[in-house]
Design goal:
By secondary structure, the protein is α/β, with parallel strands linked by helices. The chain has 16 helices and 18 strands. Strands 1, 2, 3, 4, 5, 6, 7 and 8 form an 8-stranded mixed beta sheet that branches. It has an 8-stranded parallel barrel with strand order 9-10-13-14-15-16-17-18, surrounded by 6 helices.
Length: about 500
């Protein structure tokens, strides 16, 4: 049985020892924990017609899945062995799940017959936080779309979904204490498209489904800027829009309306909105919202935004984020905020910063990011000119924006998260995140065009050691090419970039 020279393993494992020959998969007779067996069944069903059943015992199985000790001995690690059968051992349930994802990638068809190569893999992640973001505020995506996004991301070993729930264009989550948020501020999206929101039961279902794929949900309520939608529901909480010359020129260039207080905003200009920082009622709102979200979020994080508050004075911004980070911490969660919040001296200790400046920092961005570490926190690296999935692949690509950079697949792959912010130790980098902002994406098919294959590049950066022999562009482009048959079978609307020698 012939296999491609470059096995389509994304992200590439810590250690791979390949032997001659392959194991023919005549059936998928599996023994193991129910969740892991279900994950393998789901993965194989999209690509193969192999008979699939559960073995009564490990001795009777062709594929054995189990939780036990691994050579790495660290959370999320796993071992995979293929000899006269397949054996996958995870250090925990997450590790077992990731081993199953690797087996899915190894399964190969030649002339209608399925097999996996004889191989030994020992694997463990580089970073604890491997995130991908979905903005549902600019354009809304329902529960089924979010589940699909989770499926495709978790298959590449992402373990956090940053859910950007609120912005100028819409509020997307039911809050019992403030019901007008979804009654009045959820009906529209960018460009005047239809909006929507999640009930608390919808949100709980997303949380449950993400957990089944070993992904932690990180909800974001963007504050104090990006808050025009709040003012549609509760005008007494939000300042009048700050109309700058840049906002006017961008609105004219894009033929988009300017924001008007109390009216739904359908453009995508930024920096014009702010909650009323001097009003005590604002902090009642923040406390109620964050408390209700914390109550239905089992994960450890609450993201409170903090970016692009361009119409807010530095003094007001400091007043707000000092209080907001503490309110978030009082819920029992760890606050997360965009790197601008690091400009404030007295943010809550342990707050995590999300860096969205460029690979080569500009202005005060590096200093702001480093302040989170000085306050006992850590950093999530989302360098906008490398990781932003909503940037165009090339100047003529029909979707996406260009303000951060034009990001082809090679540029997405070739950056090093520990080398961005000077003076920050490697251990202070919690991980990376690849954000997808949704100004131009109206459907999940649009989202997938921008996300894949670049999300595969970031998955490898997050998981695989920077110095591993296979961590090169030439190796990656050959390996990601081998994912095309699986993506096609699973209906993933990936962009067939000419940078990649895609397989049929």
């Amino acid at each position: 049985m012939a296999f491609p020279e470059s096995l389509p393993l994304i992200p590439f494992p810590t250690s791979v020892r390949r032997a001659e020959g392959a194991l023919a998969l005549t059936s998928a007779r599996v023994h193991g924990p129910d969740d892991a067996v279900a994950a393998l069944r789901e993965g194989f069903a999209a690509r193969t017609s192999l008979p699939f059943d559960s073995a009564a015992s490990a001795d009777d199985a062709q594929i054995v899945l189990q939780v036990g000790s691994t050579s790495a001995g660290t959370p999320e690690s796993y071992e995979l062995r293929v000899g006269d059968r397949v054996e996958i051992t995870g250090a925990d349930e997450a590790g077992l799940f990731y081993g199953v994802q690797t087996l899915r990638q190894l399964a190969h068809e030649v002339d209608g017959a399925w097999s996996v190569p004889h191989i030994e893999i020992d694997d463990a992640p580089r970073f604890a936080y491997r995130g991908i973001m979905l903005d549902v505020a600019r354009h809304f995506f329902g529960v089924d779309d979010v589940k699909r996004y989770i499926d495709n991301a978790s298959a590449q070993k992402y373990n956090h979904l940053h859910h950007h729930l609120t912005d100028d264009q819409g509020w997307r989550l039911q809050i019992d204490a403030w019901p007008l948020l979804t009654e009045k501020a959820a009906s529209s999206s960018a460009l005047g498209d239809e909006g929507g929101f999640y009930t608390k039961d919808d949100y709980r279902e997303i949380v449950r489904y993400a957990a089944s794929k070993h992904m932690v949900l990180v909800p974001e309520v963007d504050l104090p800027g990006h808050t025009h939608a709040i003012g549609v529901a509760y005008p007494e909480l939000v300042e009048a829009p700050v109309i700058s010359d840049l906002l006017i020129s961008e609105g004219e260039r894009l033929n988009q309306p300017l924001p008007v207080a109390g009216q739904v905003y359908t453009g995508w200009g930024v920096g014009h909105s702010s909650v009323r920082i001097g009003e005590e009622r604002t902090y009642d709102f923040v406390r109620d919202v964050l408390t209700e979200i914390a109550e239905i979020t089992p994960g450890p994080y609450l993201h409170i935004g903090g970016d692009e508050s361009l119409g807010t004075t530095a003094e007001d911004f400091a007043t707000f984020v000092t209080r907001a980070t503490r309110i978030a911490a009082e819920t029992g969660k760890t606050p997360v905020a965009w790197h601008e919040v690091g400009a404030v001296s007295d943010i809550a200790e342990g707050t995590i910063g999300q860096y969205w400046g460029k690979v080569t920092p500009e202005g005060s961005h590096a200093e702001e990011a480093a302040h989170f570490v000085a306050r006992g926190g850590s950093l999530i690296m989302s360098a906008s000119d490398a990781t932003y999935l909503d940037m165009k692949y090339d100047a003529d690509f029909p979707l996406g924006l260009v303000w951060a950079a034009i990001i082809n697949v090679q540029k997405a792959y070739e950056w090093e998260p520990t080398a961005v912010v000077p003076g920050v130790p490697t251990e202070a980098i919690l991980g990376i995140e690849a954000p997808l902002w949704s100004e131009t994406t109206r459907t999940m098919a649009d989202v997938e065009q921008l996300v894949f294959p670049r999300a595969a590049a970031h998955a490898e950066t997050a998981w695989s050691a920077a110095t591993a022999p296979e961590r090169t562009w030439d190796s990656f482009r050959a390996r990601v090419a081998g994912l095309a048959p699986a993506w096609k079978a699973e209906g993933v609307n990936f962009y067939a970039s000419e940078e990649i020698p895609w397989q049929n």
